[in-house]
Design a protein that fits this description.
Blueprint lengths: L8 H11 L7 E2 L9 E3 L4 E7 L2 E7 L4 E10 L2 E6 L24 E7 L2 E7 L5 E7 L3 H14 L1 E4 L5 E4 L6 E2 L9 E5 L2 E8 L2 E7 L3 E9 L7 E3 L4 E5 L17 H5 L3 H13 L6 H21 L1
Helix pairs in contact: 1-4, 4-5
């Protein structure tokens, strides 16, 4: 893998929301020692180290660092505090980093949902502004998110033949007669939504109806750049094929995972969750508040 380098299916997912009333009930208040753990929102990550005041958190993206903050224990979780590199403020080498969303004093709560460790980030109005999932391999996690939330599903080509992207394995059938293994392409060390398949390469865009795969070729001038070549391939999702939208009722999703859904999908999922009112599970409520932030950003871009 080159390390250098989000409506037919939606209807099924929305129906799953109603079928999952009992999902998300397995919530544990059991706390783990954060020391030595790594957490991610799907793009950025931070490593946690124990210190006298609580926990130092340092990280960034796979391209650059810069995240540096502290988690100070409280009776109901943690609050964020400004992080630094550990030298005296009078030292010329003293530096500070930034916290997610650039705020200090916000609350973090650690919970276990369906045996998965999650850190939930709240603002001062007690609204969820971030969810961070535990990871042991950030690159593998990002690849898994692309496979599951961008690509996976069963599709038909314009000629009627089928293409199937696996949900858990980095594989696709029906696209290349000589290759099934997907090799994700990273541009400037970050996920690009592109992948290699044998001697071919594609950039993938999720649509309300399925996928658009644009053939690409690596630039001779800049190896981090992939140029579009040829005609895009339009794939239509097979009705009933799992589009992963139902996962909002089953597990906590982070901003990257939710971000792979289209704008229309995000709006419809949010509407379905909001309609549940008091019957929404804690998992659904957290995902709904995460979607609200993404939708607010969608609207601001349109404006």
């Amino acid at each position: 893998m080159n390390k250098k380098g989000f409506i037919a299916g939606l209807a099924i997912g929305i129906m799953l929301l109603g079928a999952c009333q009992d999902q998300g009930k397995k919530v544990s208040e059991e706390k783990i020692d954060l020391a030595g753990t790594t957490w991610t929102d799907g793009l950025y990550f931070f490593n946690v180290v124990k210190c006298d005041s609580g926990y130092n958190c340092e990280g960034g993206s796979t391209h650059e660092g810069g995240i540096m903050f502290m988690l100070v224990p409280t009776d109901d979780g943690f609050v964020t505090a400004e992080g630094n590199n550990g030298v005296a403020k009078t030292d010329s080498n003293y530096t500070t980093g930034y916290c997610f969303d650039g705020e200090v004093g916000y609350k973090f709560v650690q919970k276990v949902f369906n045996d998965k460790n999650v850190l939930i980030h709240y603002n001062k109005e007690n609204k969820v502004i971030g969810t961070y999932l535990q990871t042991t391999d950030i690159v593998k996690t990002m690849n898994a998110d692309e496979q599951r939330y961008l690509l996976c599903g069963e599709y038909t080509k314009e000629d009627g033949s089928k293409v199937v992207f696996d949900a858990t394995k980095f594989e696709v059938t029906g696209l290349n007669a000589d290759a099934t293994a997907i090799d994700f392409i990273y541009s400037y060390d970050l996920p690009s939504g592109s992948f290699k398949l044998g001697n071919e390469a594609y950039n993938a865009k999720r649509t309300d109806e399925g996928l658009i795969l644009q053939p690409i070729k690596q630039s001779k001038e800049d190896e981090e750049v992939w140029d579009e070549v040829g005609k895009p391939m339009v794939l239509k999702r097979v009705q009933g094929s799992d589009d992963q939208t139902g996962n909002v009722s089953k597990e906590i999703l982070n901003s990257s995972q939710l971000g792979y859904f289209t704008k229309n999908e995000r709006a419809k999922i949010h509407e379905a969750l909001k309609a549940k009112g008091d019957k929404a599970s804690e998992i659904e409520t957290i995902n709904m508040q995460m979607l609200e932030r993404l939708i607010e950003n969608d609207n601001s871009i349109e404006d």
